Every structure is written in C-alpha cells, then in structure tokens.
C-alpha cells in the first residue's frame, strides 16, 4: 500500500511532455482515415515518471496511444487514457537508477470519412 501511495504522489508531480502532429518524426497513413504518429524520443530519468500528452490535431480523434522503450529494461505505463477526444495521455514510470528513452505513438482517425461507391 505504501508503494502505491508513493507512486500516486510521484504521478501527480510528474513532468509533462506535450506533442502535437507537427512534432511527429513519422506520420503513417493506415487507410480509411486512420493515421499513426511517431513522436520524438523522450528521456525519463531514473526513479521518475513522465506524463506524455499526444494531441491528434484538428479534425481528428485520438483512438489509442502506445510507447516503446529503447533498451531491454523495466519500464511501466502506469496509466494510459484519452484525455479528450483529441488527445491521449501516457504516464511512464522508470523504476531503474539510470535514464531510459521511450518513443511515444498515437493512433488517430479523421472525424469525417468520404465514401465513394462504384457503380456496378
């Protein structure tokens, strides 16, 4: 229980990193209005938590967020949720004594989709 309370207190004091679509290193069109954004790596110091907020952009809805870590080390997403229709939040906990680097990802979908039918 004490560990949970410490982690909750740490999360409330977590430093925040904000990303918008213009910050994406890679933008991938996944078809039918879906898009994957790969954001720049985020360094998380040892024994700390980072809040990463990813914004989908105008006319888009945040569907899911994810992350990968650069080394074979322990790291945990203590929370992952939609903050609004247009943004996704991750809290990444680095329990290690040294820094780690994580790469955040966002899947979004356009609010409108135009479907054209072929005449048969």
Topology:
Layout: H1 2-12, E1 15-19, E2 26-31, E3 34-38, E4 42-44, E5 48-55, E6 60-69, E7 76-84, E8 87-94, E9 100-110
Parallel strand pairs: 1-5
Antiparallel strand pairs: 2-3, 3-9, 4-9, 5-8, 6-9, 7-8
* Mean pLDDT score: 88
CATH top level assignment: Mainly Beta
CATH topology: Immunoglobulin-like
Question: What low-confidence regions span 5 or more consecutive residues with pLDDT below 50?
Answer: none
End-to-end separation: 65 Å
Helical/strand content category: mainly beta
Keywords:
Immunoglobulin-like; elongated; 1 helix; 5-stranded antiparallel beta sheet; 120 residues; 9% helix; mainly beta; single chain; 4-stranded mixed beta sheet; 9 strands
Question: Would you write up a description of this structure?
Answer:
- This protein has 120 residues and is mainly beta.
- It has a single domain, classed as Immunoglobulin-like (Sandwich).
- 9% of the residues lie in helices and 54% in strands.
- The chain contains 1 helix and 9 strands.
- It has one helix spanning 2-12; strands spanning 15-19, 26-31, 34-38, 42-44, 48-55, 60-69, 76-84, 87-94, 100-110.
- It is elongated, with a radius of gyration of 17 Å.
- The N and C termini lie far apart (65 Å).
- The model has no long low-confidence stretch (mean pLDDT 88).
């Amino acid at each position: 229980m004490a560990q949970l309370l410490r982690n909750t207190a740490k999360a409330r004091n977590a430093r925040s990193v904000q990303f918008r679509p213009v910050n994406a290193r890679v933008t991938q069109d996944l078809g039918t209005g879906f898009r994957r954004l790969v954001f720049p790596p985020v360094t998380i110091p040892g024994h700390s938590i980072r809040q990463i907020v990813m914004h989908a952009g105008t006319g888009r809805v945040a569907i899911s967020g994810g992350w990968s870590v650069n080394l074979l080390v322990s790291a945990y997403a203590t929370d992952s949720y939609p903050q609004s229709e247009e943004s996704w939040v991750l809290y990444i906990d680095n329990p290690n004594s040294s820094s780690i680097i994580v790469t955040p990802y966002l899947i979004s979908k356009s609010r409108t989709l135009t479907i054209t039918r072929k005449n048969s």
